[in-house]
Amino acid sequence: MIFGRSERGKPPVEPVTLKILVAGGFGVGKTTLVGAVSEIKPLRTEEVLTEAGRPIDDTSGVEGKHTTTVAMDFGRITLREDLVLYLFGTPGQDRFWFLWDELATGSLGAVVLADTRRLEDCFAAVDYFERRSIPFVVGVNCFEGAARYPADDVRQALDIDPAVPVVICDARDRESVKEVLIGVVQHAMAHAADRRQTVTT
Hints:
Oligomer: single chain
């Protein structure tokens, strides 16, 4: 089925749409992740890094990066005919953090992308979602030449709750990203069920 059309004899299915944030540090692969999985041409708000921004933007570890997201990335993926995810990639630099609250409104959950070479860059995103009780999954983006660590080691380094999934992924690979997004949906549903149970007991 493609939005509004269905197979002959079957009633049209109205898909459930869910909003997922993709967050993390500067240059961690958020724009790449959204682009790898989106079934539409992603909306990107990238600008070229300039000399004027050099004192503000920390490019250590990502010296080859020449552009930055200044508002958001946007993409869409249909997981099933009745389930569509809208992806919003957040800007990674501190000076654009005022946009986060707006982007987070109405979100089901989030992916926090992490780079093991600069793990501290995702601390702020982890803290943001923890403080707002927004369920999230940590996706460890595997960069070429970076050391590989077991998920449990990353969890310990980030000091996150044992219930938060940590998955190894490749932000360039559609199937890998799809698995991360399915993990977000499953984790968010489990999180919602736990909260409902807490309220009723």
